[in-house]
């Protein structure tokens, strides 16, 4: 992912010290209502899904919200660590996407369960956990080992919120965890999960309908974020692997690779170009402009939920945009 950086040790030490002062007079996991649980999620994607399952029985805090903030470059604060210290349940993406969660947790004595979406997704082989991703990042089960790891071109990448099955699996795990923490709310959690699961089924049905109408359509992406959704629909990614890897790593694209990408668009060999509106650079902006000039549809995607939407309505909107582009 472009611009991804782990929080430097000096920042982590500063945060830990600042948070220790802030926490001095506070007991963890306290809320105004003793019967209300506290859930902390790294982004509003997971916060929204958690709120759908927890209902009124939990207060949910999402550290990163809206599309104005680039999650890759987010630097956590003492307030974030304070929120984590009070959490009854913590939800992170993992896979190097939100390493600040583990950095902050390392400075806390928290016993709250931590749900890691990449692990729960079922998209990674057992051996994948702990391996570095394309950006030299890892989740909390392994060490950094350079710019090697998951090949995003095969549809297995850390942007697991674009997999409806993965989010269904995460919702089930959230419900299970909440039932263990709060047995009295088990029936409500089960009912809320059943409702959310039905909405996930609806998204899957829509994706398959679009795929049936446009099976095998070629697409290009500026980075790997939407590929899990494109795979679900049945679209074929024609992006040179070297291009999306360079963009996500924040390195320069080789001139020959950029020329190859431009040729795909100018020749009309792809039905649409998808780009991440939260992490655009000169090269991606040039390609977006070229696509529009070449009458290739452009679809903007994001890594957090746009204002005014929830997870399901956001994904519905993404499907609308993809269907319109293909049509």
In words, what does this structure look like?
The protein is an alpha/beta fold. The protein folds into two domains: 9-201, Rossmann fold, CATH 3.40.50; 214-326, Rossmann fold, CATH 3.40.50.1980. 45% of the residues lie in helices and 11% in strands. The protein is built from twelve helices and eight strands. It has helices at residues 9-23, 44-54, 78-85, 100-105, 117-120, 164-181, 186-213, 227-233, 241-249, 255-266, 282-293, 311-326; strands spanning 37-43, 58-64, 89-92, 114-116, 218-221, 236-237, 272-276, 297-301. The strands form two sheets. It has a four-stranded parallel sheet, with helices on both faces. Helix 7 (186-213) runs parallel beside helix 12 (311-326).
Radius of gyration: 20 Å
**What is the spatial order of strands in the main beta sheet?**
2-1-3-4
Characterize the largest beta sheet: strand count, sense, and whether it forms a barrel.
Answer: 4 strands, parallel
Structural class: alpha/beta
Order of helices and strands: HEHEHEHEHHHEHEHHEHEH
What is the CATH architecture annotation of the largest domain?
Answer: 3-Layer(aba) Sandwich
Outline type: globular
Low-confidence stretches: 1-32, 129-155
- Give the CATH superfamily of the largest domain: Nitrogenase molybdenum iron protein domain
For the residues shown, what is the average pLDDT? Answer: 83
Bin the helical content: 40-55%
Tell me the strand percentage band. Answer: 5-15%
How many independent structural domains? 2
Task: Please state the oligomeric state of the protein chains shown.
Answer: single chain
How many helical stretches? 12
Strand segment count: 8
Write down the CATH class of the largest domain: Alpha Beta
Subcellular location: Cell envelope
Region (Disordered): 125-154
Pfam families: ZnuA
Protein name: ABC transporter substrate-binding protein
